[in-house]
């Protein structure tokens, strides 16, 4: 089995970082001066202020993540005979063993597509991450049935090709494992 290594896209990460900074600025302004953001839909300054605070919190985390990823020299995604080594997002767990993977499905939320990786032992992967990452992964588990997902949003690779390649490798690995 040929090893495939896909680097992180510094351009995509920079764009994510720029959007997060813009959201942070707008969130800060709407927190400080909510009256300037009153519209037909949003008339209550307190609601605008709460939205601004939520935006500041979320975008601050995204800025930190973006800066960390911008300087991350590790490979974004590696697929080989051992499994999928994921470094694509804030809750990446590293190596996901082929022997653990039971199913791979594609999901889409708005315009963002991602692969859901179902495993025989999700706790094995939940135990690898810190408390905040674990909470996010547990929320994914409740929504999708698995804590593991992979997107091409930070990769130098398009999603359709990523999906095709990972599904092919998974199928090939299943042929090698007699229990499946």
Can you summarize this structure?
This protein has 180 residues and is α+β, with helices and mostly antiparallel strands.
Describe the structure.
The protein is of the alpha+beta class and 180 residues long. Helix 1 (10-32) runs antiparallel to helix 2. The model has no long low-confidence stretch (mean pLDDT 92). The strands form 2 sheets. A 4-stranded antiparallel β-sheet has the order 1-2-3-4, with no helix packed on it. Strands 5-6-7 form a 3-stranded antiparallel β-sheet, sandwiched between helices. The chain has 5 helices and 7 strands; from the N terminus they run βααβββββααβα.
List keywords for this structure.
180 residues; four-stranded antiparallel beta sheet; 5 helices; alpha+beta; elongated; 19% strand; three-stranded antiparallel beta sheet; 7 strands
* Radius of gyration, in angstroms, nearest whole number: 19 Å
Order of helices and strands: EHHEEEEEHHEH
Secondary structure class reads alpha+beta
Strand content: 15-25%
Main sheet properties: 4 strands, antiparallel
Describe the secondary structure blueprint for this structure.
Blueprint: E1 4-6, H1 10-32, H2 45-70, E2 77-79, E3 83-86, E4 94-97, E5 101-109, E6 112-119, H3 122-126, H4 131-144, E7 148-151, H5 159-176
Antiparallel strand pairs: 1-2, 2-3, 3-4, 5-6, 6-7
Helix pairs in contact: 1-2
């Amino acid at each position: 089995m040929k090893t495939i290594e896909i680097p992180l896209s510094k351009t995509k990460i920079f764009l994510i970082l720029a959007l997060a900074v813009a959201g942070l600025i707008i969130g800060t302004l709407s927190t400080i001066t909510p009256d300037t953001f009153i519209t037909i839909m949003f008339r209550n300054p307190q609601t605008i202020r709460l939205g601004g605070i939520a935006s500041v919190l979320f975008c601050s985390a995204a800025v930190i993540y973006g800066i960390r990823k911008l300087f991350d020299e590790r490979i974004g995604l590696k697929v080989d005979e051992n499994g999928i080594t994921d470094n694509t997002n804030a809750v990446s767990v590293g190596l996901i063993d082929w022997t653990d993977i039971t199913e791979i499905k594609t999901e889409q939320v708005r315009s963002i597509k991602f692969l859901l990786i179902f495993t025989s032992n999700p706790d094995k992967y939940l135990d690898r991450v810190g408390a905040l990452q674990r909470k996010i992964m547990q929320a994914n588990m409740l929504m999708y049935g698995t804590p593991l997902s992979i997107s091409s949003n930070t990769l130098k690779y398009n999603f359709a090709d990523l999906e095709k390649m990972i599904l092919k490798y998974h199928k090939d690995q299943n042929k090698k494992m007699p229990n499946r």
